[in-house]
Amino acid sequence: MFKEKINNGQMFAWIMMFELGNAIIVNLGEEAKQAAWIAILIAMVAGLGTFGLIYFPLFRLYPKHTFTTYTQIIVGKYIGWPLSFLYLIYFTYISGRDLLDFGTLTSTISFDQTPVFVINGIMIIALVYGLRKGVEVYVRSAEIFFGLFMFVFIVGFLLLVISGQMERDNLRPVIDDGMKPIMQAVPFVYTFPFAEMIAFTMFLPFLQNDKSVVKVGLVSIICTGILLSIIAVLNVATLGVFQTQTAVFPLIETIGEINIGEFMQRLDSLVVLLLVVTSFFKIGTFFLAAVIAASDLFHVRNYGKLALPMGIIILLCSVMMATNYIEHIQEGMQVLTKYVQFPLQTGIPLLILFIALIRKHFDRNSKQEQEQSE
Q1: How far apart are CA 32 and CA 190, in angstroms?
Q2: Fewer CB within 10 Å: C terminus or N terminus of the chain?
Q3: What residue intervals traverse the membrane (predicted)?
Q4: Which class would CATH give 8-373?
């Protein structure tokens, strides 16, 4: 179905950049306090289960089709088309939310005199250009930027250790209030970012070796979980629990604490650099998922033609969905997780898989009956 193909290394880098995305700057698992890293690892395990037990089995049943395509095959056109259209709206909406995250942070930290709309517009222009070039070109850039990300991350980590700003006592006691706060933090961390792998059900047919899908997906999720848990530990060890919880962007304040000989300090720009790089792939992945979904639903052969109109829609969504950033965050944590993310990321795909397995069972039985009658 898809002439463009990507290899395992490119898919791994792409998933990593996508999963890290804007998750590196928010306070993941804040309800768990100093045990946030445990909540992240538990959510990671849940994400592994979702990918390995839902997304991959669906792909294995329909290896040549995207999620919106095989949904129509499994449940029929009259139910499948509206359901697939719902995912088109979802991909578009989440891309807009991530674009708002990017624009707000960049405006707050580096370009406080520049309107968020202008910053978001520049990102959309870059993405439209990249996506019109095709999936292969877009994903090749993920390999390059992943190397840049890891280099900056390792340098920042080493500088933070050398500066002596981290306090191990900030991480103790690890489980102060029992497991309840940890488990309360898990659902949000699960839906953001681990279960957002639902977007990759639109891209798995692009992989050259479809037998490697489960391996690449699971390894990428594990590596993401480890990196995010390390960031959570760094934030709490450097800032303490209270400052980490009250900070809008904890990682920026953490890196801002680096001070080596009154010479090397104010390295906040490192975080902004990481955010620009990861956001390009986080926003772009949902953007591309929406474009491919639209091309599938409306029978547009060249999905690149839809990049510009879809980009304009996402840009407008990013500036219209919330009056301020606090409202945006509260909406994401209190409404989006429970009523949007969990049903669309887990509930509906699980139901579709269940129906697909039942259909496969009955199809196999009817085929055996026909063979016996002959």
Answers
A1: 14
A2: C
A3: 35-58, 78-96, 116-132, 144-162, 182-204, 216-242, 270-294, 306-326, 338-358
A4: mainly alpha
Question: Is residue 217 within 8 Å of 200, Cβ to Cβ?
Answer: yes
6: DSSP letter: B
Instruction: Classify residue 266 by burial, with Cβ atoms within 10 Å: 0-12, 13-18, 19+.
Output: exposed
Cα–Cα distance, 9 to 147 (Å, whole number): 12
DSSP structure class, residue 207: B
pLDDT tens, residue by residue, 327-371? 767 777 677 888 899 999 999 999 999 999 999 877 776 666 666
Residue boundaries of the structural domains of the chain: 8-373
For the whole model, what pTM was predicted?
0.94
Each residue's pLDDT tens digit, 92-149: 999 999 999 898 888 877 778 888 899 999 999 999 998 988 888 899 999 899 999 9
Provide DSSP, 214-242.
HHHHHHHHHHHHHHHHHHHHHHHHHH-HH
